[in-house]
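Batch job 17 of 40 flagged for manual review because the log was empty.
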Amino acid sequence: MLGLGWLKRILSLGSSVKASSPDEVESESPPEAPAVSVTADNPISSPDADALNRTKMASAFAEQIQNMDARHGLVVGVLGPWGSGKTSFVNLTRHHLVGSGIPVLDFNPWMFSGADQLVQSFFIELTAQLKLRPDLKEIGEKIEEYGEAFSGLGWLPFVGTWIEGGHKAVVAASKLLQSRKEGAGSRHAKVTKALSNIPKPIVVVLDDIDRLTTAEIRDVFKLVRLTANFPNIIYLLAFDRARVEQALGEHGIPGRDYLEKILQIGIDLPAVPFDVLNSQIFAGIEGALSGIENKGAFDETLWPDVFMEVIRPLIRNMRDVRRYGAAIHGTVKELGGGVALVDCLALEAVRIFLPDVFTKLHQSIAGLTTTSKHTYGEREPEYLKEQIVALIGSAGEQQNVIRNLIIRLFPAAQRHIGNTHFGAAWKNGWLKERKVAHEDILRFYLERVAGEKLQAYTCAEVAWSILADQNSFDAYMRSLPPNQLRDVISMLEVYEESYAQEHAVSGSIVLLNLQQIIPNVQLSIYDFGPQMTVTRVVYRLLKALKEPSEIEAATQQILPQLQQLSYKLALINIIGYREKVGNQLVSEDAAGKFEQEWRAEVRAASAERLSQEADLLTTLLTVIGESSADEPKLSIPDKPTITLSLLKSAKSETRSQPMGSRAVTRTPRLYWDGLVKVFGNEEVLHERIASLMQSSVDIDQDLRDLVEKYLSGWRPKEFLDSHD
């Protein structure tokens, strides 16, 4: 799915080489590496899971341990930085030791704190594990008796530099213990004699020492120093050399000097080869994503650059591989395909390995996603660039990684670190491809909550997939909450480049008819209302037909299926030549014919049909204003329901917003001049309104109050000014 075969091939040729096509190199891809666990950062426990080919090295180390003289005890070490696979190497070594019949015991110093508890627990754990083995039960009992003498180790007065006085401290400790615990010396002798007679040494493993605090690291090495002289006891310590040396250093004496006195042999784990770690990363990603049904769109052209420039520099060892695999599994599954996969993989690497940078992402959304403005002379807000500079600066030594992240995932922000500009025209494409370059997608990734726009786009994706099926498209759109319809319809413009012939008729019919259930609410002072949202999409659907004859044929199919006269007028306006609204998509003759036929349909409409019109006033005014001299005169039925429909469609709002204020003032208005024109004069208008008020037709109180205000002679100031 990720095209890892050809990506591996690219990497084998060098990071600067790019394959022109996945197919060119897919057949030469190397065999897949063993899958990496997705569920946890667990070390391997057997050679079968050895992905780093360290089994041979561990076998040699095990043989070296067995061949050493352990008559006076031994301390050996497996050294490597955090995440280098020390525990896995210890487990491989254990496998060979156990296969040779050597008992291997474990002591976890993490379980205890303080010298007193540590030593007591050490003997308890050691004896418990020995007593489980029939051949070592007697030794376990003797060590248990000896360990009782150390139950008070915590109070021993280790005075002065503990490293310098290491040997003296042991002697002092022995004397104090002998005075406190009668028979400690004889018990020690019994343990020594018993251990001297066993055929093979006992290996005691102490792992993850470098994860302890400085004080706890010192306590562990005190324990080892105090007990390491037992015959046939081999301590196998696993730790990060730098961390332990730092903890053991004191008063100018390097910790390395003390460490060298403790360790007889130590093996430093080699770095994981570049290609091997790459293979493990690929296997880790594949393993993490397997079983996830919707992973998100995968951009094969972007993936190699994102991997090499963002993800790969942040992954240093196998522990990082496992942490990364566990992280992407949960995130990709949770996002459910809502974010492009390559974008998600890159941002997850930042989240896991550069947490300080990740915390700044939310503060940098505007800087990362705001596109360039092409308005001449308009200055760009300075805070946009400041956000990007701060984001890069938070990466410390990995600033180049974040620069590459911006270049690859956030085109809009490239102008802040270079001279490449992306305008608003790119945003629909980013949204369609679910890229975090779009603000709504980035917010969804960061917040895990889809905003209103992203929810609308998600619905628009479904709507687009069934747009050619009129019945399915209509049923789906009507199943959505009415207050969401407008945003969903608007989001269909994202697919404009893919509009085709099969979408024009079905899409236009459904969208135009949906106007009856879309709330007629202006979203802002500059908003033109829901009809503009619908007609924008319908215009683009019809324009996709290219030829005027095709658009004319489509119009002939659409018009009979539109449920209101005003919807038909909206369609005729889109294709025709009417001033300020026509787009001239058909011939002028065809447009004129459509208009004439529509006016005839309005004149022939029943009173019931007219009263159900959502915008009856505009419909009638259009007929009155555009009818030719030889067309019959429009007659308005004297019906209260028609008068009410006209009053409703005449009502509007004027909006004003004072300077320096966010408050919007709404003032209701009636298009009184339009009403007078429809009824012929103001006297007839008054008569029709009086008839309506006396009828049983239900009238909204706000509309009633507004009408009575106009009847009393009140007119808005702008009306009076225009009639002076």
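Reviewer: the log was empty due to a logging misconfiguration, but the result itself is present. The chain has four domains: 4-15+30-37+273-425, 53-268, 450-587, 636-724. Unflagging and moving on to job 18.
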